[in-house]
Design a protein that fits this description.
By secondary structure, the chain is α+β, with helices and mostly antiparallel strands. It has six helices and four strands, in the order E-H-E-H-E-E-H-H-H-H. The chain has a four-stranded mixed beta sheet.
Length: 132
């Protein structure tokens, strides 16, 4: 029986992303979360309907019902599934949700630069993917 309820697509080349995945993995006792490194050479985006560029620009996850969620919703769902939903509960409150979304948007926009990684155009060129 498959217990995975949320498949999270993460950038394994990002030190902060990797740290977050390691933390969630350590709390994933029921196996509800599955993590897929989008930089893995054998990973195929065709299967999930998410491009490499999209996945690099913002975090995405696939729910067991087939729906795709992204941004802070991924963390809200993941933390809920590992029994730590209270950590992200305030991010669902009016006004706070907009502030958190804005903060995440800034992080997502500058994440590669902050973590001293090449720009998305170069990463896409290395993977021979479209950047439009």
């Amino acid at each position: 029986m498959n217990t995975v309820k949320l498949t999270i697509f993460f950038d394994g080349g990002c030190p902060l992303c990797k740290r977050e995945v390691d933390f969630m993995s350590s709390r994933n006792h029921k196996g509800f979360l599955r993590f897929i490194d989008i930089n893995s050479s054998d990973f195929s985006f065709d299967k999930y309907g998410i491009t490499y560029k999209q996945a690099m620009e913002r975090i995405h996850a696939l729910k067991s019902n087939g729906s795709v969620i992204r941004d802070v919703n991924v963390f809200q769902e993941a933390y809920s599934l590992i029994g730590l939903g209270w950590i992200y509960a305030p991010t669902k409150l009016p006004v706070i949700d907009k502030i958190i979304a804005l903060i995440y948007g800034v992080w997502a926009k500058y994440r590669l630069k902050i973590t001293l990684r090449p720009p998305i155009e170069k990463l896409c060129a290395e993977r021979d993917c479209e950047i439009s």
